[in-house]
Amino acid sequence: MNIGFIGLGIMGKPMALNLLKKGYSVTVFDINTASVQELAGHGALTASTPKETAEEKDVLITMLPQAAHVESVLFGLEGASESLKAGSVVIDMSSISPIVSKSLAARLMERNISMIDAPVSGGEPKAIDGTLAIMAGGEENTFHQVYEVLKGMGEEITLVGESGCGTTAKLANQIIVNVNIAAMSEGLVLASKAGIDVEKMYQAIRGGLAGSAVLDAKVPKILDRDFVAGGRIDINMKDLTNVMETAHALDTPLPLSSQVLEMFHAMKADGKAADDHGGLVQYYEKLAHTEVKHKEDQQ
Predict the structure, then answer these.
(1) Is the pTM here over 0.85, yes or no?
(2) Given a cut of 90, is residue 122 above it in pLDDT?
(3) What is the distance between the alpha carbons of residues 98 and 110, in angstroms, rounded to a whole number?
């Protein structure tokens, strides 16, 4: 099976690399030519436009920051839809709104091209080791057609429903993850301000109801003051913006999500848009005039 892959960012590059390791023929494209050349060093073919990337491909995967980028690479100048063959499948693994996903799927279907919306969860570590959770939306037959390709990048792969259901599930995922990070940050800052050993507190609570994948992934990095992005604040801010737009269209109030979105805007204004979203703890630290770190590093 010949695969085209567009979008070699924090997540896309290791995902494409895993497909190469599985033995697939993968042609890659990104505006970051250094990433393209890095993948070429691992055996990928390279293309200079989305249209060239999609030529004679059975599957085209897009992993891009925003809906406008997905629409551009599919339908813009030298867009992939110009060369995709009838019967091929586009797998959009970007985190965009379900409204846009449905629209893109309908436009592709006019050309007899199927689409699966298949956003992911797990961040850079799981993209690297190929154990991403993948939530898919689309026709069941199409899903089974590309299931093994998805297995090349993920571990838990679920067809949630029809077109747009994958992106809707991702919005719900982003609510749960980011509100969880905010709640965790409040607890960590309270503990730090009280002067207790935050690392010991973490060990004490992680086996109870407060334990979570978020807690285990983020607390060690916060204690090390490591805010290098696995999931950037600005990308999660974009996701929560999509959450609120979708919620408003459905007359569904989401007060916690709206508050976390405002916190992300504050972080961006403070020059921290490129930090990992676990860096949200810095928002609370600034308010409380404290810093969450290892006990031995405290003065």
Answers:
(1) yes
(2) no
(3) 19
Assign domain 168-297 to its CATH architecture.
Orthogonal Bundle (1.10)
Burial of 1-27, coded b for 16+ CB within 10 Å and e otherwise, reads eebbbbbbbbbbbbbbbbbbeeebebb
- Residue 166 to residues 9, 16, 83, 119, Cα–Cα distance (Å): 21, 20, 26, 6
* Nearby residues of 116 by Cβ (< 8 Å), 6 or more positions away: 89, 90, 91, 92, 136, 137, 138, 142, 143, 146, 166
pLDDT band at 299 (very low <50, low <70, confident <90, very high): low
Tokens encoding 156: 């838990």
- Per-residue pLDDT, 76: 95
Domain with CATH 1.10.1040.10 in the chain: 168-297
pLDDT in tens, 184-221: 999 999 999 999 999 999 999 999 999 999 999 999 99
Q: Which of 170, 218, 238, 272 is catalytic?
A: 170
CATH code that applies to domain 2-162: 3.40.50.720
Q: Write out the residue limits of the CATH 3.40.50.720 domain(s) in the chain.
A: 2-162
Q: Distance of CA 74 to CAs 46, 111, 131, 187, Å?
A: 17, 12, 27, 44
Q: Are 95 and 167 in contact, with CB atoms under 8 Å apart? A: yes
Radius of gyration of the chain (CA): 20
Residue 170 catalytic?
Answer: yes
233-249 helix and 255-269 helix, angle to the nearest 10 degrees = 150
Question: In this structure, is the dihedral angle defined by the CA atoms of residues 74, 79, 85 and 91, taken in order, positive or negative?
Answer: negative
Question: Could you tell me how far CA 284 lies from the centroid of its own chain?
Answer: 24
The three-point CA angle 17-138-168 to 5° equals: 85
